[in-house]
Every structure is written in structure tokens, then in C-alpha cells.
Amino acid sequence: MFIVISYDIPEDNRRTKIHKILKSYGQWMQFSVFECELTDAQYARLRSRLSKLIKPSEDSIRFYFLCGCCQPKIERIGGEQVRDDTIFFA
């Protein structure tokens, strides 16, 4: 499944931890946006790891699921091309 994940974490230390976890599952696209191609098991593990770190009263993480038909419709204007397509699962 292809997922776009965005997050809003006000505390620096927690935000850094979230970023490191997401970087091990997908491609960092913008400051708080990742694109991930995951299996159901990988998604479940990622969601579990993130749930343990956040403070639900302060933090927000959103998951946008894109179907196979929607992926080719992603458009980009400006910004650099993706440079690192290596993904490591932690």
C-alpha cells in the first residue's frame, strides 16, 4: 500500500524520534511529509511504534492511503528530485 504520512509534533525531541522512525520506512519528501510503500505488516508495526511515542493531546500524525490508480496522478511543482530511494526497516 502507498501511504503519505504527515505529522505535527511541537516538541523537538519527539519530532526527531518520529522523523527517524519514518525515515526507516519511507522517503522524506518535505519537512513533515513522508511517502511510504508498505505491506500490511509493515504498516501495523510502524503505527504501533509511532503510537508509543506520541502525546495524543499535543501531537498529530495523519495517514493518507493512495490507491494504485491515484499514485500516477501525484504531481510536483518545484523542489528537488528525490535523491535517496533506499529504505531500511528498523
Outline the structure in words.
The protein is globular, with a radius of gyration of 13 Å. A four-stranded antiparallel sheet has the order 2-3-1-4, covered by helices on one side. The protein contains two helices and four strands, in the order βαββαβ. 29% of the residues lie in helices and 26% in strands. The protein has helices spanning 12-23, 40-53; strands at residues 2-8, 27-30, 33-37, 60-66. Helix 1 (12-23) packs antiparallel against helix 2 (40-53). The longest helix has 14 residues, at 40-53. The protein is an alpha+beta fold and 90 residues long.
**Radius of gyration computed on alpha carbons:** 13 Å
Number of strands: 4
Order of SSEs: EHEEHE
pLDDT below 50 for ≥5 consecutive residues: which ranges? none
Helix share bin: 25-40%
The structural class is alpha+beta
Query: What is the count of helical runs?
Result: 2
Q: What global shape is seen?
A: globular
Largest sheet: 4 strands, antiparallel
Terminal residue distance: 18 Å
